[in-house]
Amino acid sequence: MGALTTTRQAVAVPMQEAQYLTFLLGGEMFAIGILGIKEIIEYGHVTPVPMMPAFIRGVINLRGAVVPVVDLGARFGQQCSSVTRRSCVVIIEASGDDGQAQDIGLLVDTVSEVLEIPAVEIAPPPSFGARIRADFISGMAKVEGKFVIVLQVDRVLSVDEMSQLAEIGDSHPQQVQ
């Protein structure tokens, strides 16, 4: 029998472009990958939930499902966002450490556009030192000479915060009238 031999050749993989939704928050441009975004809705009636951290605005009824709304500005240590006619809720599907997916609404000042950003244009997140958290930053993208902070949405909320949001959904019936 003859011996079967294989040769491996190096294959050049082109740099991938990914699509990102860009939005403004406190005058700064942020981006999140569109693959985790379910939809973008107009800011409407949010029902406050007692005993929640200040950055959790409350819950909304999204086609019968209870979806918590996080004020992203307040989550990042800024003031609570002022709701304007351009305010939007970006509905994302986030995964906790347990692998459970949950819909979460992110309150943003205004949605800008969907951009294709080449991977080569995204630098790794900066190191701020041990006292400043940067684990929610996926990278810093250069778009038209300006930096855009690319968020890692699964890390925007800590495990404890994700469990609190899960408890909100569990404490309400799945269907809201």
> How many distinct folded domains?
1
CATH domain class: Mainly Beta
Overall 3D form: globular
Query: What structural class do the secondary elements suggest?
Result: mainly beta
* Whole-angstrom Rg: 20 Å
Layout of secondary structure:
Layout: E1 17-25, E2 28-33, E3 37-42, E4 56-62, E5 65-71, H1 72-75, E6 88-95, E7 101-108, E8 110-118, E9 122-123, E10 137-143, E11 146-151, H2 153-156, H3 159-171
Parallel strand pairs: 2-11, 5-7
Antiparallel strand pairs: 1-2, 1-8, 3-6, 4-5, 6-7, 9-10, 10-11
Could you explain how this protein is built, in words?
- The structure is a single chain.
- The chain starts with 16 loop residues before the first strand and ends in a 6-residue tail after the last helix.
- The longest helix has 13 residues, at 159-171.
- By secondary structure, it is mainly beta.
- The protein is globular and about 45 Å long.
- It has a single domain (17-171), classed as Beta Barrel (OB fold (Dihydrolipoamide Acetyltransferase, E2P)), CATH 2.40.50.
- Helix content is 12%, strand content 42%.
- The chain has helices spanning 72-75, 153-156, 159-171, and strands at residues 17-25, 28-33, 37-42, 56-62, 65-71, 88-95, 101-108, 110-118, 122-123, 137-143, 146-151.
- It contains 3 helices and 11 strands; from the N terminus they run βββββαββββββαα.
Name a few traits of the molecule:
177 residues, mainly beta, OB fold (Dihydrolipoamide Acetyltransferase, E2P), six-stranded mixed beta sheet, five-stranded mixed beta sheet, globular, disordered C terminus
